[in-house]
Amino acid sequence: MIAWAVLAVLAILLAVWGAREARDATGFFAASRRAGSILAGLGGTAAGLSAFVFIGGPSLFATMGAASLWIILSAPLTGALQCWAVGEPLVDLARTHGCLTIPDIVAAKFGDGLPRGMAAAAVAAGGIAMLAVQAKGVGVLGEVLIHVPGWQAATALFAATTLYTAAGGMRAGLVAEAAQGLVMAVAAVAISVAALWRVGGPAAAVRTISHLRPELLDAWGAPGTVSALSLFLLFGLGTCAQPHYLQKFLLLKDSRSLRWMPLVMTAALGAVLTVWVGLGVGATALWADGTLHLTSPDQLAPAFLSAAGGALLGLAVVAIAAAVMSTAATLMNLVAAALVRDFPLAVGRSPAPSLGPARVATVTVCAAALLLAFHTETTVGLLGILGWGTFTAALLPVILLGLNWPGATRRGAIAALAIGPLTQLALELQHAGQRMLGWEPGLTGAAVGTLALVALSLGRKPDDSEVGGEVGWVD
Amino acid sequence: MAVVLAAGWLATAASGAALVAAILAAATPAIVAALALRRRPQPLRRPLALFLGVTALTIAAAEGTLFLLPSASPMTLVVQLSLAVFLTPLVPLVYALTFPTGNGVSR
Question: Which domains occur in chain A, in start order?
Fold first, then answer.
């Protein structure tokens, strides 16, 4: 109860400060463009990492073994790849066209109307799905760790997040995210060390798994080489299409901040991902030798932490709450921006000049995500992959290739934005991904979207009249 | 870089037809995109080389240990994670030392 009270007080203080600072659209959606490499790097990592890492990651190790590590083995690369391939063009476009959102960027490159509207639809759909992941993760945590109904824990945490996000937008959200990123990094390392220590050290943990569950140590795992490789590509390249990562480039005060941003991002990412390996290996060894009793791999992290108790349990609860809140704040802001800024601009209307509609939209998005979270049976890990895949399928072609290729046309971009997510959704619905050599549906959607972008752009020069100067609503 | 790439792809090719098919499936859009970019290859050339190099090294680490040791050897895990730890500071430093890369040109 004391912890909830402290959380509420901090959220109220942050909301009051944020409401005073974020007085216009640039403040609310782009944190007044005052972020440097440390703030944006920590914030981006915190927003990108979530309950999926703390709960879904270790559970994926218990399910797939070493094959699950292909999701995180691209971690050394992703920060530099993002800054190099998409960060620099994004910062440039944000400065020259006044972009505040990812659909703004798409509109700046490919013209307003359909490209903006379709990008906004992808952000809204994927954002709601990923918010539901966070709520579901909190639900699992609440039931196992603090013994309250999952929906109650999720509602309480989301209410605190919504309070400061609705009041101060990313001006409040970014400050919170940077602090939450630090908390997550410290806690992840501590939890990993504790998990491995309890099983007798890393060598003993691996020996136990090797003896009792040897199949988990296969580098490619039961799903096979193709699935493992597709996970590596999905999460390696997919970071270039995740709007909650990309948004941070729009918050930078200048392009020089990009130089050291990958180092900050990768250091924070590496520290937090130790929980995937340490807790995954340690708790799986405890499950394999019968110390932990589980009915589902999703319970792996909560069950271990619950058994550990004491300070470690408290630290874990704070870290997981930080992970959920940082991701949720950014996603709420992104989806709210899509609803009140990008959809109106896409149909030729001006967004409301005040921040009232954006604040109402933030609250509405939170409610929608909570409803979705407690009406689906999909596990946390798989729901996370589904949300990530939607962003990848829809946005990777137009962001990664589209921004870097002068020959990319509006027609090609529209085709890519439509065909990519439709392909992914079709494969997800029919479970055809497994039949296609195990190739991940989000990655397949991105590949098909890339082909569509190139095929429909070749032989046609980009029409300069399609691209506007400043985009939409600039303060 | 070419030697690293060649070693990586040769190692992966040794693991069977399914992986080769997957690489071909992944390579097709990449090849088409590369053709589309051929008139102005500067923006994505170096990040693409970085991505392919790290990917090839990571796959080669897994395949190399699988080739030398039993399929469920703990050494595979150790080698993969050691490579990740080695690359974690190296790749961002490469970017920082290369900055500014010239990929932020106004368009």
Answer: 2-379 (1.20.1730.10)
* Predicted pLDDT at B2: 40
pLDDT band (50, 70, 90) for residue B38: low
Full residue range of the structural domain in which residue B59 is found: 2-98
What's the confidence (pLDDT) of residue B67?
76
State the Cα–Cα distance between residues A166 and A329, nearest whole angstrom.
9
Q: Could you tell me if residue B106 is inside a domain?
A: no
How many C-beta neighbours within 10 Å does residue B6 have? 11
The answer to whether the Cβ–Cβ distance between A450 and B74 falls below 8 Å is: no
The reply to whether B100 touches chain A by the CB within 8 Å rule is yes
Distance from CA of A108 to the nearest CA of B (A): 10
DSSP letters, B36-67, are HTTTS-HHHHHHHHHHHHHHHHHHHHHHHHHH
pLDDT digits 0-9 by tens, A18-31: 999 988 999 999 99
**Bridge partners for A247 per DSSP:** none
More confident residue, A473 or B86: B86
Predicted confidence at residue A359, as pLDDT, reads 96
Number of domains making up chain B: 1
Q: Is residue B107 part of a domain?
A: no
Taking the Cβ of residue B47 and every Cβ of chain A, the question of whether any pair is shorter than 8 Å is answered with yes
Q: Look at A74 and B90 and tell me if their CB atoms are within 8 Å.
A: no
* Assigned domain for B55 exists: yes
Q: Between A178 and A433, whose confidence is greater?
A: A178
Q: Has residue B104 been placed in a domain?
A: no
ipTM of the complex: 0.83
What pLDDT is stored for residue A440 in this prediction?
Answer: 73
Contacts of A413 (CB under 8 A, 6+ apart): A106, A109, A110, A115, A397, A398, A402, A453
Interface test with A, best of B93, B103, B106 (most A CBs within 10 A): B103
Which of A45, A71, A217, A439 best probes binding to B when mutated, by most B CB atoms within 10 angstroms?
A217
